[in-house]
Amino acid sequence: MLKQSLQQKLLQKLSPLQIQTIKLVELPVLELDQRIKKELEENPVLEEGVGADGEEGKESGEGNNTDTSLSSYYGEESTPSYRLYSNAQPKEPKKEYPGFSVKESFQQYLEAQLGFKKLNERERELALFIIGSLDDDGYLRRDLESLSDDIAFRVGIETSPLELEQLLGIIQEFEPTGVGARNLRECLLLQLEAKKGQPTVEKAHRIIRDCFVEFTKKHYDKIRQRLSLSEEDLRGAIDEIVKLNPRPGGNINDSYDDKIQQVAPDFYIEIKDGEIQLTMPRFSVPELRINKRYADMLMKSVKQSARDAKEAALFVRQKLDSAKWFIEAIRQRQNTLLNTMNAIIDFQHDYFLDGDETLLRPMVLKNIAEKTGLDISTISRVVNSKYVQTHFGIFPLKYFFTEGMINDLGEEVSTREIKNILQRSVDAEDKNKPLTDEELVSVLLDKGYKVARRTVAKYREQLNIPIARLRKEL
């Protein structure tokens, strides 16, 4: 039996412009530049011009007459000029930000060494597959059994873990020493084997080979008893081990990271006459102009059948709307970013004047949302992956957001200040007797900060500081 019923639902739908704006707000300055280039390639109606009154548009025949003819065809008023371009500022030359693949360069470095080995075509192909399976640290994280299955599936070569083990041994002879290791222990052993001949190296090799677990936990007394080492012998061996490189692939990667991770600031802050001045990099934001070729196509279509004319008009209309939404979204993005950054500057005014971290006030997303009238999710999108250049360095916007707590004077202080005290205390501690979390609680209490032990442990972990036992040195 069929039954009909009415039901009311409240749905909130975002307009295409809102969706476009949300996506653009998330993009940092370099990705925005790429996004603009992509839109220019995909939308034939959208073109880059000089300005609203620039000569470029006139020379290409894309002036007001074309706009009027289109508006007349649609039965609408002419589009206001201020909506046809995002700004009228002079264009700056676009900066080039060099970057290239770190992983490929690391592989190429190993492949070049492979060329000096006498291998047949099959062995070379298998070795290349192994090299391609190494991670950026230079480790082979996969077991040889699953790697042989992958080779059979992808390359069509039947092989065995034993054959791959032999080829991996060849790769482990390459520079940097330790590459091709399957874990940290093997990586350190490979490096120590390459340095054999010195007594301290031999002792270090025994420690990693026979007492690796004890070494990682810094149970030095157990190591001395098990290997019958004197304290001096143990100290010399440990000194030899700490010189080793736990990330052999990092030697290659780090030389490229500086270029590929280059940061382009989204904001610039300068101090002039004691006042904070905020600027944003000006982009060659495209103006909206109607391509004459498509305008002519539309006008010719009017003379054709009504159906063809309607389809042509619909196509151009869709592209025109898309271009308008894109440019308006860019304008709204710029306004949103400026409003957010101005609110952050206003909140952290004293800090931005001289960069003194003790002046950094506790601040959360809600504080800036209330100042700007924007949603917290919008502030989160603005803050993500954005950077500001100041006279004391370049910082991610996330750096200025920190929780707070009350000290013994009743003042609200930033947790960043507490973390700085923790870091300085650990740096200055006696490494023979590192400070435990309980002792760090006492240090903070002496400075006027009452912090629970679990909170100290949380901050210590956020600072990547190991527990006291692992910080102990001989």
Describe the overall structure.
The protein is mainly alpha-helical and 474 residues long. It folds into three domains: 16-94 and 285-327, no CATH class; 102-251, no CATH class; 404-471, Arc Repressor Mutant, subunit A, CATH 1.10.10. Helix content is 54%, strand content 5%. The chain has 23 helices and six strands. It has helices at residues 16-26, 29-42, 55-59, 64-74, 102-114, 121-132, 144-154, 161-171, 184-193, 199-210, 212-216, 220-227, 231-242, 250-260, 292-302, 306-347, 349-354, 365-372, 376-383, 415-427, 437-446, 453-462, 468-471; strands at residues 267-272, 275-279, 387-390, 393-396, 404-406, 412-414. The strands form two sheets. A four-stranded mixed beta sheet has the order 2-1-3-4. Strands 5-6 form a two-stranded antiparallel ribbon. A hairpin with a 2-residue loop joins strand 3 (387-390) and strand 4 (393-396). Helix 5 (102-114) packs antiparallel against helix 14 (250-260) and helix 21 packs across helix 22. The longest helix is centred in the C-terminal third of the chain and has 42 residues, at 306-347. Mean pLDDT is 78; it is low at 51-104 and 255-260.
